[in-house]
Task: structure prediction
Amino acid sequence: MTSAMLNPTDQPPWINSFDPKKRILTGRSYFLAKRIMDLGIVLVSAPFWLPVLVIIQIVISATSPGAPAVFTQLRTGMGGKRFRMYKFRSMVPDAEKLKEKYAHLNELQWPDFKITNDPRITKVGKILRKTSLDELPQLINVLKGEMSLVGPRPTSFGSETYKLWHTERLDVIPGMTGLWQIAGRAQLEFDDRLRLDIAYIERAGLWFDLAILLRTVVAVFQQKGAH
Result:
């Protein structure tokens, strides 16, 4: 088994119903249709998410002053290009400085960083993360064409740290949600998450994207999504 192959036991069984050979749109046609779908969904839903954006920004500013409510993180996008991804601040203003202090609590292999019950997270931040509302500003990234609604989650570390087989994820635009997020596997190491990303890339199609979006809504309500 090569590094990029996914163990069938780790693969959500429902994805087998999406046969790559039966896709109607592939290549440039698929990416164009995907872009149109992204823009259509985001723009049509704007009257719903824009007021929520404003309210959350006010709440964060009022309860945790000292830093902007929305901040940017450098992430790795398509082709290894770095871009600034938007997020609502869910941590204390000096969270990055405190990262070194709590490095011994890191549950994943560096450069991944995750702590269950992270002490840097604010009370409002816990609610935002639990509901995935801290990711809402990334709809701006989608409008800018830096991200898609569905795709591999962009990494905070650069492509120079990738192994050769990791680079397959750079062939597509990163997404707000993807296969491993809805599988509820936030604790997986990067290699294992990447195998799920590659399983997505191999089956990528509009119906598959819509299925992932619908399952993301369910996962959020079941509180098993991942950042």
